[in-house]
Amino acid sequence: MDNISIREMRSGYIRTSSGKKFYPFNPSPDQIAVADIATGLANTCRFAGQLPEFYSVARHSIIVSNLVPAGFAMDGLFHDAAEAYLGDLVSPLKKGLPEYKEIEIGVYSSIAEAVGLKKELPAEVKIWDQIVLEDEFSYFFPEYLAEDFSQLTKVNAWKNFYSSPSVDRFAFLARYWQLKAI
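Structure (tokenized):
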């Protein structure tokens, strides 16, 4: 990385599925497309992919959106939207990389502005995100349940259906348009 200047690094972009250029170090709302978010989240597996079956960040986001109080449903749908552009970095790694957190906040702020949300994630969404995480964890990693979560709330809102990236992409977009119509 010594051979790359900060300017060169900041000018780098990724090409999205819709053909847009997205600059992770310099994001702006005009670089954001809901279809790109749906695609990125649907193709990103939770828990760094260390699961016995595919389970996408898009599916997780839809579930959170369906469980939060109605006024926060769109916030719930987009709470992990930065991961569509940055990937789903596991929590222990995020905690050790404060620079990454700054980048993630910048990306989320651009997304929030593009879709009309507040830049600060509401507490109600954070609470339900944690509840769903605990439920997912209990399903995929039951042998560690007692060690990691003492007060588990069983939601079970996401089991018993087949999921794939194409299904999850469609479901994310359908939920978005449903909420836009309200």
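The longest strand covers residues 14-15. Residues 29 and 114 are 5 Å apart (CA to CA).
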